[in-house]
Amino acid sequence: MKVRGDIVNADIQELYNKTNSAYKLVILAARRAIELSEGAAKLIETAPDEKATNIAIHEILQGRVTYKIKNEK
Known about the structure:
The chain is an all-alpha fold. The chain has one domain: RNA polymerase subunit, RPB6/omega (Eukaryotic RPB6 RNA polymerase subunit, Alpha-Beta Complex). The protein is built from three helices and no strands. The longest helix is centred in the middle third of the chain and has 16 residues, at 22-37.
């Protein structure tokens, strides 16, 4: 399945449920988009001209990208 579309087409509530925090979602998407911009491999099939932010959002939606909270010292 090729992903083509912007964040507006993503299910916002489903995205929110992946992190239960708008802040965590924004940080996760931003960090993944930076990784993609720096040459990291895409975890989903997309159009060649798809923007890194859109790819990151769709990877999160599909459960390909998650986060882990570090233990505090």
